[in-house]
Structure formats: structure tokens, C-alpha cells
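Interim report, section 4.2 (structural modelling).
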Amino acid sequence: MVRELPMGPATREAYGAALVELGKSNPNVVVVDADLSKSTYTTKFGKEFPDRFFNVGIAEANMVGIAGGLAHSGKIPFCSSFACFLIDKGYDQLRIAVAYPQENVKVVSSHGGISIGEDGPSQQSIEDVALAVTLPGFVVCVPSDAVQAKELVKRAADHKGPVYIRTGRPKVPVIYTGGEFPFGKSSQLEDGKDLTIVANGLMVAEALKAHDALKDDGITARVIDSYCVKPLDSEAIERAAKETGALVVAEEHSKFGGLGSVVAQCLAATTPAPIEQVAVDDTYAESGTPNQLLEKYGLTWKHIVAAARKVMGRKARPSSPPPSAGTTEENAPHPFEV
Amino acid sequence: MPLTVDELKVKAVQVRRDSIEMITAAGSGHPGGSLSETDLLVALWFRVMRHDPKNPQWAARDRFILSKGHGCPALYSCMAHAGYFDAAILPTLRKLGSPLQGHPDRRFMPALEASTGSLGNGLSIGIGIAHALKLDKTDARVWVVVGDGECQEGQIWEAAMYAGAHGLDNLTLIVDYNKKQLDDMVKHILPMDPLGGKFSSFGWNVMEIDGHNMQLVVESLEESKKVKGRPTCLVAHTITGKGVSFMENDPKWHGVAPTKEECAKALAEIGA
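Predicted structure of the assembly:
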């Protein structure tokens, strides 16, 4: 039986709430938005602190540049729009006005992934994490629930340097009641010995359900919430590879350049292990309800379970005892194959 | 101590000589735009701007952004002679390890307010700084220099629309209107006229002057400090390669270094 998780607020709602708290505690916190403040939830900050809120209109490039200038002058700007517009349209400015001079800008997107649903691919973002991780010096986070999102936003304000946090549109299951969530770390939610599921964003809840389904079949999966894609908690990932021997990486993003790529890069260097990805294939999605899209594009616990079985079939065979006569490596049945 | 107009003219000669020598030594760079913008930069750094080379992070300083970052040789020369660093390092332009990077880079020279080189970025950064200065209730100003070709970037117009609508009167934009870009004359690539009219329609106070008339340049920049409720755009009509006859008005000198012989000829024309 897979667990039922209580539904909580969307991560973007947590962002809006965290901003208001930050605005009260730190007069240097300012917010820039590009006419999507009702969707990104920065509007609450704007109402509370109108002097420190700059709605630049539908002009993301200018917005990111302005954020760079505000940071250069000692402010702590939070800069928000939909993930695809903020990162893609503001990318040159993220390079020149933020990453290159290492300005203290906090880039917080909403509507990451395909779970925004009916608006379709022009508004969905499957590339933002890949684009963000390649910006030198950026911390990149994908929170899984509202509690974690709020904590990460507050942590971003205290961190000196550029940060990208991706939030989502739909309400998401509650994973946490509290926690610290330092940058460069991860959160182990379940332990297991047969494989590890590494996930972030709304795929963490799916990973927990997949854990339960696998457990019913006698397979124990470690579940790691890798909320910080960069810097990756390489110590936890390498330990998982050593101790469980196979990994599934699940994310609501293109399979190119996101968490899956970062985990693979980490392990290839130190602890090679078979990896299967649960991510959006080399394609754009379409209009539909969030759940229809997550099902059609392969982002549910059932897809994680299938990937888990597949990756376990690729595990290195035990080196001893040696195969008996007549049984070759190739045709020996694997204990986990189904 | 602010210089007189005559002293500024002498300083401009020095800066033009430096630009030519630096680019020749580097074997690459952008002489045309460095020479066209020189009188504007000299007026700002030696007369108009409030700054202190001994205290480059002074909170009350004016902020300068060279958005057309390829014009950095003239900027480096101004900053060296203003006292930010030893002019002896000017010949290290574009050399490995030099703070005088091919385009302005704050990592190597923190006195620079922005790292630029990808055209179109400087005005937005200047707007952010202008907002922050107002929040901090300081009367420091922001000075941004862009090229006319650079104004083909969409971001310039996002920023122009915004600064005009928000009445950022602590911001002065100077367009080095030399009418040349890399490939050809601006009018043959994408005409910008009426450039002043465009800024005017976006709510800016616009002044249009001869960008090589030092008296006028100084007066106009000073005038922009007094304008309330609107940002100022100074459209400065300039000449690519100003001061070197074989470079003047020739787009070919946008991004080509002179040979040693050409350098000697150029220096002889610029004078001493």
C-alpha cells in the first residue's frame, strides 16, 4: 500500500509568505517582479512594503538587470517570474548582471515543470534547472513542499551570493513538519539497501510512494530528497551508490542537464553505479490537467517503481561465489529481475 | 579638484593616446568607439562626477557604468589618471592576469560598478542602482554610457520605458552617437533616428549636443543634475575614431588594432 500524504500549500505560496517575514526582519530585502506577482505570490510583499517592491512590467531582461543593480548597492533583491520566462528571457542578464559579478541576487521562479497544466508548453519549464546550474557560483534548489520552500527562501536571504530556487504552481503533499535544509545537503527520508531513489520537487512525494510499493515486493529503497541540486550533497549520493549499488533519479525537468545529470556526473567521477532517470524525455509536453500530464510524461510513483526494477537488473553481479559450470554471467538469473 | 575645460581638453589628448597605445600593444581591441567616447568620459571623470579614487567604495560616490564595454581602453585610462591605479599597467590591457580585461570585469577591478561587454545590460543595472540610492536617500547619481548600435538591443528599450515611467532623475544616460557599428554604418544596418525622439517619447529629458565640444559636454552633464522628475538622455553626436584622420568615420576601425606604423601615425595626429 502506498502512503497517502496530506496536501499542503504550493511551494510558491510558501515563497510569498517567507518574503513577507523577511521584509519585516530585514529592511534590505527588496522584490522585483515582471507582472506575474499574483502568480508568484510576491504581491503580498508588494502590498506590505510598496517602497521596496518594483513591478517592472513584462520585461524580464530589464528585471534581472535591475536586480543586479539593486544587489550591487547593498540590497537583497528577490527576483521572480515564471521559471521559463525568468531564466530563459533573463539568461544573458543572469550571466552579466548576476553570476559574472557574483551579485547577491535571489532568483525565485514559480511554475516550474509541467505541473502548471493547461497553459501548455510555452509556460511550462523543463530547462530552467539545467540553465541555472551552469551559471558559475549559483546555488540551485528545488524544494519539495511548502515547509522546505519557506526555509530555503529564508536561507537564501542569509546566504551571500546568487541563489536560484524553483517553486511550483500546484498544491503539493506535505513532506516535512520542519527542518534546517542547509545548502549542499540533502534529506534522507527513508533508508533501504536495495537501491536509492534521489528526487526533488514534487517527485519526492512520488518517491515515497514508490518506496512503499517496492517494500510490498520485499525491495527496500533509500529515499533522498536532493533539494539542493548545486552544490550537490555528493557525500550522501556517493554513500548511497556504495551502500545500495543502484539509483533512480526523479525530477520534473528535462532528463538533460538537471538533477539526473548532476548525480550522474558526481558518481561517474567517484562511485560508478547504474542510474535510471525518471524525467521528461527529449520533448515538450502539452495542455492537460497536472495529473494527466505527470502520468502521460512519466512522472509518477509507478514510473519510479518501473525504473527501480530496471536499474536493479543492471546492478553489478556479486563477485563471489563464482558462477558454477554451465551458468554464464549472461544467462544467470538476477535475484531482482521481474 | 575639477579640471577647467582647457585642462579637460589636454586630458582627452592623453586618454586618446593611451587608447591607441594600449590597443596596439594588445594587438586587439576597439579603437573607433574608444576615441569617440573619450571627451564624454573625460568630462565625467575629471569634472562632473563625485568620486574619490582613495575611497572607491564611498557610499556617496556617483556610479559610472560603461555599458558599451568594448570602449574600456578610454575608461581604464581615465581611471588610471584619476588615481585608481598606476598608469604604468595600462600596456597590460587584455593580457593574462591583468586587471585591464578585454571588457570591464569587476572581479579584477572592484572599482568598476558593473561588468559589461554583452551589449544592452548597463542601463538596467544603472536603474537598479538608482532605485537603491533613492531608497538609501543619498543624492549620488548614476551615469551610464551606451553606444548607438547598442540601442538596437531590446533590453535598452525595456529599461528606457521603465526609467522614464519611474521618473528616475538621479540617472543620466549618455549615448555615444558615433553612427557606426561593427558591420557598417548604423543607418545601413538598422537606422536609429530619431534617437532623441524615441527617449523623449518615453518620458526622458533629452539633450542633443556635439559630443566633442568639451564646453557643451560639461554644461549638459551638469544641467542633467538639476532636472527633477525625469531621467536625462544626452545624445552626444560623436565621430568614430575621433582625432585620427584615417580612423574617423570608418566602421572598419570598430574592432581592429592598429599596426605599429599606424599607431605612430595616429599618435602624431592626436598630438601631445
